[in-house]
Amino acid sequence: MSFAYAKAAASIMASLLLVACEREQRDFQTPSSGSPSGDHYQRDAYDVAQGKRLFNWMNCSGCHSHGGGGMGPALMDNRWIYGGKIQQIYQSIHDGRRNGMPAWKHRMTDQQIWQVAAYVRSMGRYLRKDVAPGRDDAMQSGKAESRRERASAIVPSTPP
Amino acid sequence: MRTAIVRDVSGLPHHGFGPRALTWWGTLSFMSLETSGFVLAAGAYLYLMTRAPKWPLNAPLPDHWPGTIVALLLLASMPLNLLLSRWAHAEEMKKVRFGLVGMCILGILPLIVRIFEFPSLNIRWDSNAYGSVMWFLLGLHTAHLITDVGDTLVLTALMFTRHGYAGRRFSDVSDNCFYWDFVVLAWLPIYALLYWVPRLT
Amino acid sequence: MTAGRIRSVVQLATCSSALQACSGWQSALDPHSQTAAHLAGLFWFFTAICAIVWVLVVAALIMVLRRRRESESVLPGDDFPHQQRRKAIIVGSLTAITAIILTVLTYMSFYATREITWPRKHVLTVKVTGQQWWWQLDYQNQDPSQSFGTANELHIPVGQPVTVDLEAADVIHSFWVPNLIGKQDMIPGRKNVLTLRADKPGLYRGQCAEFCGLQHAHMSMFVFAEPPAAFEAWRRHQLEPAATPGAPQRITGMNIFVHGACATCHAVGGTDADGQTGPNLTHFAQRATIAAGTLRNTPANLSRWLADPQAVKPGTNMPQVPMSPADRQALVAYLEGLK
Amino acid sequence: MTKCASEIRDTALDDGALSARLAHIWGTPKTFWGFMTTVDHKEIGRRYIVTALFFLLLGGLAAVVMRLQLGSPDNKLVGPDLYNQLFTMHGSTMMFLFAVPIMETIAVYLVPLMIGTRNVAFPRLNAFSYWVYLFGGLMLWAAFFVNTGPDAGWFSYVPLAGPQYGIGKRSDFWAQMITYTELSGLAVAVEIIVTVFKMRAPGMTLDRIPLFVWAALVTAFMILFAMPAVMVSSTMLILDRLVGTHFFNWAEGGDSLLWQHLFWFFGHPEVYFIFIPATGIVSAIIPAFTRRRMFGYVALVLSLIGTGFLAFGLWVHHMFVTGLPRLGESFFTASSMAVAIPSGIQIFCWIATLWDGKLRLRTPLLFVFGFIVNFVIGGLSGVMVASVPIDTQVHDTYFVVAHFHYVLIGGAVFPLLGGIYYWFPKFYGRMLNERLGRWNFWLAMIGFNLAFFPMHILGLMGMPRRVYTYPAEMGWGGLNLLSTVGASIFVLSFLVLVLNIIRSLRSGEIAGDNPWDAGTLEWAATSPPEPQNFSRIPVVTDREPLWQNPETLPVIGGMHADRREILVSTLVEATPEVLESSPQATIWPFIAAMVTSVTLLASIFTPWAIVWGALPVGIALTGWFWPGGEKEDES
Predict the structure, then answer these.
(1) Is the Cβ pair A112, C259 closer than 8 Å?
(2) Fewer CB atoms inside 10 A, N or C side of chain B?
(3) Nearest CA to D149 among D131, D130, D132, D167?
(4) What would the pLDDT profile of C2-24 be if each residue is shown by its tens digit?
C-alpha cells in the first residue's frame, strides 16, 4: 500500500522534473533531419523565445501586426483557417498559403520555422504559461503572451 | 565558576510599556526597515519621474478623491488610537476592548475606500513605467494596511478571551497603536507623491 | 612623467616574466594611445603606493612575531599607560598619513579623468551597436552616400580622434579595447559616447566586458589603426558594392546566398541580399575573423562555421542551414571572393 | 494579576539544583518533535551554521567545476548554458546563502552568551527565519538540479534577467530566493538589535560591550536599511517578468539603470555585512591570544559605525562605466577612498595590540595573521578600483574577481575559519586538533593566494569575467591553470577542516569552560552551554569580566526558577528594569515558514498565489501569537 503511494509520488516527482527540464532546455544543435512532430518545440521556453525573436526579425508583424491581424489574419484568436496545431502552422509558414502568405522554406531553416510556429501558438495562448514569453523591452502592444487568457478551442475558419 | 549573588531583582515588574518592552523595540525595528523600503520605492518613483519627458506619462491625472478620503479616514482614526494607547497603559480592560473594536472599524473603512483607489489612478500597472510605480507604491501601503488591520482583529479577539488579562497583552495593544501611527504617517508622503506631485508639472 | 618613472621602477622591481605576460593585443598594460598610457601610468602609480603600504603592514606583522617583549606579565590585562600613549600617537599619525595618501590618490584619479576627457565633436563618427553576440558598426556621415555599415572590425585612422557612439540592441554590452581606452557600457535605450584615438598603428583586440548571455565569451572585436591614407583607401572601398563574382562556382554561391536563407539576415551591397539582423557581409573577405573574433577567416574555418555554427558558438543566432557539401563549397568560394 | 502561589525564585535553590531545574525548563528534548519546535538560539544557530556550511560546499563545488573548465583554453567540459548557471549559482549561493547567513547566525549563537542572557529577543522569529532560509536555499538548488538554475549572474542585470531575455523561469527563482533570504536576514537583524539593546547583563554599559557584539549590532543595522533595497528591486523584477510592469523597460519610461542603483544600494553594504562581523571575530581572537585588552576600543567601535555609514555612500562605484555624469562619479571615488580610513584604523589597532602582547601562536591567531596579509591586498586593490579611470580598465575583468575574493575570502573567510577554531570548543565541548589546524591554515593560505593572485594579472591582460572559455591565442592559459591548481589546494584545506571536525567530535580533547583563558562572558558558560546559558545572570563591571575576576562570577538573584525568564535592561546603562518571560518551544514558526514558502514558490508561476496564500499565512501567524496558557504567556 505505502509502496504504491511511494511509487505514485515518485512518478509525480519524476514528471515534474521532466517538465522543468524540458521547459528550460537550450537545444543549440539542430536536430538531425527527419525531425519528428515538432511538439517539443512548444514545450521549450527557449525555442518559443527564439521563435519570438525570429517573428520580429522576419517582420511578421508587417502583416500580422503582433498577432492582432492586418493584411494577414489575426494569430491571437481561436479562428484558424489552415488549422491551429503546431504541425499545421509549420506547414503554413514552410510552404506559404494562398492570399499572400509567402513560403519561408528557402528563407528560414526547419528548426527556425518550428520555433516561429511554437511562438505563434503561444500568441493564441495554447502553450503553458511558464513556457510562453513575457513582455518585450519595447513599446507595448497588448498583454504579453504569458499573461493572455487561454484561447478557446480551435475553430476552423475560412479566409475573409 | 563560583557565583556570588550581588544583587536581587525579584522586585522587578513582569512587563513594561514602550521602550521597556522588547516588542516595542521589535516594532520600531520593523518600522525602520519598512520606512527604508518606502523611501527606496519613493526614490524609484522620483528617479523615473526625472527621466520621463512628462509626468504623468501618457495618462490622465489620477483622481485624488478616494486617496484624500483614505487620508482623512486615517487621520480621523488617530485620536481614538491615542486614547486606546493610554487606556492600555492604564490597563483598563473595558475601555481597551471598546477602543480595539473602534480601531477595527476605523481600519476596515479606509481599506474599503482603498478598493476604489486603484482604478482612480487612471492608469494600469502594465501600461508604462509611470503606471507600474504608481501601483507599486499604492500596493506597498495597502499591504501594510491589511497586515495591521489583520493584527488588530486578532488582538481584539484575544482581548475578549481570558488571555487578555495578562499584563503583557496591554503592552501588545499599545505596540499595535504605535504601529498604526506608522501606517497612517507613511500614507501622507505616499499620498502626496501619488496625487499631488503629478499635478505640479 | 612621474608616473612613467615610477612605472619603470616598478617594472624593474616586479618579476619580469609576469610583466611580459601582461603585454599583448588586449592588455591594459601595453598602451598604444595617450588615453591608455594615462590609465596605465595612473595604474602603476597606485600599484606602487599600494605595494609599499602592503610591504609595511607585512613588515609590521613580522616584527610582531619576532620582537622580544619588555614585560612578559602572565596576567592578562592592559598595557602600561606610557605604552598606551605612545601607541595612540602612532596609530593617530598612521591614520593621518592614510588620509593624506587617499587624498592624493583621489586627486590623481580626478586629474587623470580630466586628462582623458575629449571634446565630443570629431570628423569621423562611428556608431557601435552591441548585439547578441557581435558588433554592428555604422560609419556615419552627413551625406548618406558616404555612410556605410560593417561589423566586428573597426578601422580608424592613426592620430585622429574618432567619436564612438555606443548603443545596444538587446541587452547591456560593454565596449572595451584595453590597449586604446577603458570600457564604457552600451545600454539599451541610452547613448554613451567615447573618443577613441590610437597613437600607433596596429591591430588591437577588444572584447565585450559586460555579461550579455550565452556567448559573452565569444564577442570580441578588432581595431585596425591605420595610417590616414590607408584608412581613407579602406573607407572608399567600403562605400563600393560587393565584387561581382566571375567564376561559375562563385556565381552558384551567390545564388545560394541571395535566394537562400543567408539573405534573410545578411546584406551584401549591390545584390538583392538586404537582411539587417545579421552582420553586413559586403566586404566579408577583407575581414580577419568570423563570428565576432571566434575563428580566423580562412576557407576551411568558414566552411566549418557554415556547416554547424552551434558547434563553434553554441547559442549563436546563426542557424545551421542545411545544404550539400558542394553548395557549401560554392558559398564559401563566393564569400571569400567578397574582397 | 495576583502572585502565583507556587512560584519559585532562584534564590531558594543552590547552584546545582537551579542549573538542573532551568536546564529542564529551557531544554530541547532529543526527539524529532523537539527538533522541529525548538526556539533555543543555540540549537537554531548551530543548525543555521551547519546549513550555511552545506551551501558553502555546494557553492564551492560550483566554483570547482568553473575552475576545471577555465583550467585550459577552449575547454569543452561545460558549455555556456551550464557555465552561466554555475557562476550565477556560485555567486548567489556564496553571498545570499552562505556569507551573510553564517555571519548573522554566528551572532545568533554567540551574542546571547556574550552579553549574558538566555535567548535572543524573539526566539520564535528566529526559528521562523531559519526555516524560511532553509526552504529558500533548497528551492534555489532544487531549481538548479532541474535545469532551472538562474543564469544572469548574481546581480541579475536587466534586461538580461528581464522578461524578454531572461528566458523561462530561471530568473524568477533567483528573484524569489532573494525574498526568502531577505525575509530571514531581516528577521535576524531585528532580533540582534533588540537583543543587544535590551537584554544585556546588568552593568554591561555601552563601553563594555564586546567588540564582536558591536560588529553584529552595526551589521544588523546595515541589514535593516540596505536589504529593503533588494527586496524592492527583486519585487520589481518579478513584477516585470510576471505581470508585465515596466520598471526596467526603457521603451515605456522605465530604465535598466534603476535596477543597478537599487541593487548596488544593497549590494555594496552587503560586502560589509560579511566583512564587519569578521572584524568582530578578529577583535575577539586577538585579546585572547595576546593576553592584552584590545587597544583603541573606542576607535574600533567608531570605525565600525563609520564603516556602516560610509558603506551606504559607495554604491555608484559599481556603475563607473555606465556613463553617469563625471562629477558625481568623482564624489563616489572620494567616498570609496574614505571607507579605507576606518578599515585602516582597525588594522592599526590590531597590530598595536599584537605589538606588546604575549603571543600564543595557535590556529585562531594564525588565521588572524593570514587575514591581515590577505585582506590588506584586497583593501588596496579596492582603493585602485575606486578610482574612476583605473576602474574603466579593470571593471568586469578578472582583476575585480581577484579583488573581491581577497576581500571576501581574505577578509571574511579567514577570520571565520579562525573563529571556528576559537569557538568550536564552546559549541561542542571539545578542542580541534592543533596540528591539523596548522595544515588547514597553510594549505588555505597557499591555495588561496595561488588561486586568486594570478587573477589580478589575468584581468590586466584583458580577461573579462564571466566568460565560459577563452581562445588559446590570448595567452591566458598558464595563469588560469595555476589558478585552478591553487583552487584545488584551497579545497584541500577545507577537507582538512572537515577531517579535523569529525575527529574532534569523536575523540577531541575535552575543552573545559574556558580553554583559551579568554575574558568575555561566553567563556563563563559551560562547554557546550546549558540550555539556559547562565543559571544566574552575571553582573558585569568590566570589558573583560573573566579577566577582572577569574575566580568568582558576580550574579543577580531573584529571578523565577519555574518558567523561561529573561532580564530586560536599559539601553545605555544596562540597568535591570523588567523580568520578561521568554516564549516556549512551538511548531508554529515551522508551519508559518512552510506556508510562506509554498506561497512564494507558487507565486513564481502565478501572481494569484499571493492572494490564495494570504489566508493560510494569516492563520499560521495567528496560531503563532495566540497564547497557549503556559506561565510564560500569562505573566
Answers:
(1) no
(2) C
(3) D167
(4) 444 444 433 433 333 343 444 56
Q: Chain D residue with minimal CA distance to C92?
A: D345
Domains of chain B: 62-200 (1.20.120.80)
Q: How confident is the model at residue C339 (pLDDT cuts 50, 70, 90)?
A: confident
User: Which residues 6+ apart lie within 8 Å of D3 measured at CB?
Assistant: none
pLDDT above 70 covers what percent of chain D?
99
Count of residues for chain C? 339
Partners of residue A147 in chain D, C-beta under 8 Å: 243-244
Angle in degrees, 0-180, between the axes of helices D340-356 and D326-338, rounded to the nearest 10: 10
CB contact under 8 A, C315 and A28: yes
Closest-approach residue (CA) in chain D for A136: D164
* Structural contact between residues A109 and C322, judged by C-beta atoms closer than 8 angstroms: yes
Residues of A with CB under 8 A from a CB of B: 135, 140, 143
Query: Is-above-0.90 flag for pTM?
Result: yes
Cα distances (angstroms) measured from residue D574 to each of D108, D293, D454, D533: 20, 22, 51, 19
D616-623, long-range: CB within 8 Å, 24+ apart, which pairs?
A: D617/D592, D618/B150, D619/D595, D620/D588, D620/D591, D620/D592, D620/D594, D620/D595, D620/D596, D621/D592, D622/B154, D623/D588, D623/D591, D623/D592
A20 and D249 in contact by Cβ < 8 A? no
Sketch the domain layout of chain C as residue ranges: 3-27+120-238, 34-67+81-117, 248-335
Residue C157's alpha-carbon distances to C161, C224, C228, D327, in angstroms, are 8, 8, 5, 31
pLDDT for residue A21 = 78
Of C38, C183, C214, the CB nearest to D81: C214
In this prediction, residue C142 carries a pLDDT of 87
* pLDDT tens per residue across span D503-529: 999 999 999 999 999 999 999 999 999
Under a CB-based contact definition with an 8 Å cutoff, are residues D97 and D497 in contact? no
With the CA atoms of C300, C302, C305 and C306 taken in that order, what torsion angle do they form, in degrees rounded to the nearest 10? -110
What is C248-335's CATH number?
2.60.40.420
What CATH number is attached to the domain comprising A108? 1.10.760.10
DSSP-derived secondary structure letter, B6: E
D371: left (phi over 0), alpha (psi -120 to 50) or beta: alpha
Q: What is the mean pLDDT of chain D?
A: 94
Q: Nearest chain A residue to B127 by CA: give it.
A: A140
B59-106, pLDDT tens digit by residue? 999 999 999 999 999 999 999 999 999 999 999 999 999 999 999 999
CA–CA gap between residue C34 and residue C215 (Å, rounded): 32
The chains in contact with chain D, meaning 3 or more Cβ pairs closer than 8 Å, are: A, B, C
Complex confidence, ipTM: 0.92
What is the full DSSP assignment across D460-472?
HTT-BTT-S---G
Eight-class DSSP state of D72? S
Q: Which parts of C167-312 fold into alpha helices (H)?
A: 228-239, 248-259, 262-265, 299-307, 309-312
- C248-335 and C3-27+120-238 share a CATH fold: yes
Q: Which numeric CATH code is attached to C3-27+120-238?
A: 2.60.40.420
**Distance of residue B50 Cα from the nearest chain D Cα, in angstroms:** 10
Judged against a pLDDT cut of 70, whether residue C118 lies above it is answered with no
- Asked if D243's CB is within 8 angstroms of A138's CB, the reply is no
A13 at D interface, C-beta within 8 A = no
Below-50 pLDDT ranges, chain A: 1
Q: At what angle do helices B167-191 and B129-159 cross, to 10 degrees?
A: 160
Show Cβ contacts of residue D304 under 8 Å, excluding neighbours closer than 6 positions.
Answer: D211, D214, D215, D218, D276, D279, D280, D342, D346
Sequence-distant (6+) residues with CB within 8 A of A49 are A119, A133, D164, D167
**Pair D84, C217: CB distance under 8 Å:** no
State how far residue D602 is from chain A, nearest Cα, in angstroms. 12
